[in-house]
Design goal:
This protein has 197 residues and is mostly helical. It is built from 10 helices and no strands. It has 2 domains: 1-59, Orthogonal Bundle (Arc Repressor Mutant, subunit A); 61-196, Tetracycline Repressor, domain 2 (Orthogonal Bundle).
Length: 197
């Protein structure tokens, strides 16, 4: 017979699994359909979690939006930890642009997952708007640090240019339904970064 601690651990894992499925489903639906057009029922169906169980994990839709923002932030930080393994700041920035280029097909279909979320929530002007802005802030701060390590006194301006170019290219790639727009602009950014070094 399993010990109580084992049963508790399994129940905790099951709860975490359902919660993670709900967050992942919400993240996908928010990207494809937008926050406003996605209902808790849609999220429950997509995650294969009974609607009544959703309220066990998230009391309101805003709670799940916060969880999605947190999941995106965790993913961004994990990417930066991976990129930080590259030898120097120039190599890290170039690797970042390559990661962005890989998202071209998804971006062409549905837009940038971060950009669309920030844009939609930014119109609200509430705590979700501020929370979503953190996603872009993380990118700008990381890129700024890389440019600073390259000895650039204009590091913050360069970081804003980098992130703005990526977001603009993502918008155009989605508008044209053409991933080549994003991959072409990231190639341009790699040349630009090399010229700055």
């Amino acid at each position: 017979m399993p010990r109580l601690s084992q049963m508790t651990d399994s129940a905790t894992v099951a709860r975490a699994g359902k919660r993670d499925r709900l967050v992942e489903a919400a993240r996908d639906l928010f990207h494809r359909n937008g926050v406003e057009r996605t209902t808790l029922a849609d999220i429950a169906k997509e995650s294969d979690v009974p609607l009544g169980n959703v309220y066990y994990y998230f009391k309101t839709k805003d709670d799940i939006v916060h969880a999605v923002i947190d999941a995106h932030a965790d993913q961004i930080r994990e990417l930066f930890r991976t990129l930080d393994r590259h030898r120097g700041p120039r190599a890290r920035l170039i690797a970042f642009t390559r990661e962005i280029a890989r998202s071209g097909p998804v971006v062409a279909d549905h837009g940038c997952p971060l950009g669309t979320l920030c844009s939609e929530l930014g119109r609200r002007g509430d705590d979700l708007s501020e929370a979503a802005a953190t996603l872009m802030r993380l990118r700008v701060e990381w890129a700024s640090e890389q440019f600073r390590l390259m000895g650039r006194k204009d590091a913050t301006n360069l970081a804003v240019t980098l992130v703005s170019t990526i977001q603009g290219a993502a918008l155009l790639a989605n508008s044209y339904r053409d991933p080549a727009v994003l991959t072409g602009q990231t190639r341009y950014l790699r040349r630009w970064i090399n010229d700055l070094a």
